[in-house]
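Is magnesium ion placement plausible here? Inputs below.
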Amino acid sequence: MSAGIDLENVCCDFGSFRAVDHANVSVRPGEFFSFLGPSGCGKTTILRMVSGFIEPSRGVIRIGGKDVRGQRPNQRPTALIFQNLALFPLMPIWENITFGLEVRGVDKTTRRAKADELLRLVDLPGAADKMVSQLSGGQKQRVAIARALAVEPQVMLLDEPLSALDLKLRQHMRAELRAIQKRTGVTFIYITHDQGEALAMSDRVGVMSQGRIQQIADPRDIYNNPVNGFVAAFVGENNVFTGDVQNPSQGMASFATPHGTFRARLGDIAGQTNVKLYVRPEHTALTKAPGPENSIPVTITEVSFEGNFISVLALSDSGARLTAEIRNDGAATVPEMGAKMHMSFDAARASILPDADVRS
Amino acid sequence: MHDMMRRYGPGLTLLICLLVAFWLLMLVIVPNITLFEQSFRPYLPVVEVGGPKDFYSFDNYMKVFDGNVEKSLFGMSFEIPVHVYTFFLTILYSMLVTLVCFAMAYPLAYYMAKIVNPTTLPTLLLMLFIPLWVSEVLRAFAWWIILAFKGPLNALLQGIGLIEDPIRWTNMGYTGVVIGLIYTYVLFMLFPIYNAIQSLDTNQIEAAEDLGAPWWKTHWRIVLPHAKPGIASGSVMVFMLSAGSLLVPSILGSTTSQWFTQTIDQWFKDALDWNTASAYAFILLFLCTVFVSLALWVFKVKLSDIAK
Ligand SMILES: Nc1ncnc2c1ncn2[C@@H]1O[C@H](COP(=O)(O)OP(=O)(O)OP(=O)(O)O)[C@@H](O)[C@H]1O
Ligand SMILES: [Mg+2]
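Reply from A.M.:
I modeled the complex. Tokens:
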């Protein structure tokens, strides 16, 4: 059982400060949806409005098509996993997991059996009688997930649940969460400020900045076709040029910068004044001879070997600091420091985008 | 200790230590030991002290069993030594005071710790503290005035039509004493509970609600268990202070309310029999301690939890 969630023009004001500004999202039933954004952009606020701890200042929230305004958290078919998990330290694990059933009046034997079943689901058998303090970070994580699943919610809300874990465990838990979501079919709304996490796990991602949802799309689109500079910068590295748009036609345009005039794809810049050109480092090429188009003469200033790729910093003859990334396929030639080369990029891989959509 | 030496130098440190030692020894240990020793000796004219009649015995302690009175409870009448009866009532009403203090303090503590806007909390605390700046005697007398036959409480109750004729509050058994003790000691319940609830992660309360718990279930399963040490330490404090209070029962007591401390006081001041008075004081101390330890054991609270 899973339900979709619709936010229609949802706003949340704290005094005169607008933490969430006209959010419009439709999360489909059974979808893994992530909100991605920097600290303080309003992610937790959205989640708390869906779970019922905060009422929106305006707008409508629907869960499974039903308007839930005025419903307390204990009446909504959602289960929230808190940023700090909020397990109950005075109860053994199995009582933690079945707390939601206990308040629904389920008898003890049934609860105990359910706890064991859920512990197997989250791959933590045999922990039923331990106390919370006896578990490791990753194990607590699983208990929190089991506790939320126990009430058979139609929607799971997860507030940066992996942020306290170390890198290896985080990567493992990503896959685990994704698997649990697929197995149970429950709608997941997942919050994170880690772009890798959002892109790797989600069916769709909503990128947020300063209370506004900037773009909603599947991970590939978010990365490859960002709608504005904020999204482009938040979900990856960029070389950014300022300049002016010239002769736009058929989705392409020329972009005149102090470092040369480049051809690039033209984003939706209608009515926007602040427009920049964005090129991802891995979409550039470094060659001895000038490239076929969009070529800039540069001097290599720094080369750093990152393992799977090589990051190269270069200074253009016109004074721009640029970054290139070369995939390390084992045969890649590493440019030498101080070498004079040409950096070029494909017009189809560069985008002219407006700045972020922020309140005026 | 090292820290103190560094901060104040050896001279001042020594002085502070000596003062503390003096306070402990002369004002706490010696008087108590003296009274303890006296409690086992008979009350004698000065010339006979140290004479053949002056030997240790439990006689003073046995005096609580002297002088039966007839009482009836639930329609059953029985004979009971008058001092034992006083003792039981003292314990009983101290428990009542503790219970009422808890019932009043818990919601307020929860409100202060989790609901009230942090910016208005200092004002609230100040309002709670201001009465404490007034001497305990004056506060007890204030209640004496409030509860007086023609006092404000009766006027208020008559004004809103709850009662027709004024009530003699201070002549209704232990009513005045209980009200006075609650008022005097409720803050000793409030602050330990407030501290305990404040240390509870608010997310846990929200998590319980999110999992479907109604508010009372959240309190029963999450807040109360977490606040248990605070509740225990508040209860011990209120109970011990109430059972040991002399001032409030003296001022707000009625002709039919006798507090065990008043009995002790009468041995000291009216009978001038310090030996028996000491014995009674140690009976009160010992039995209250036993009672409290028993209560802590029943509620599964460890002493180390309370000290936190
Ligand atoms: N109760 C509140 N009162 C006033 N302002 C608040 C309140 N809660 C949040 N805010 C403000 O709203 C904004 C969004 O907060 P929110 O907690 O949603 O951020 P977030 O995206 O979850 O950030 P993080 O990644 O750091 O958790 C912040 O600027 C915060 O200061
Ligand atoms: Mg947050």
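Short version: Chain B is about 70% helix and 5% strand.
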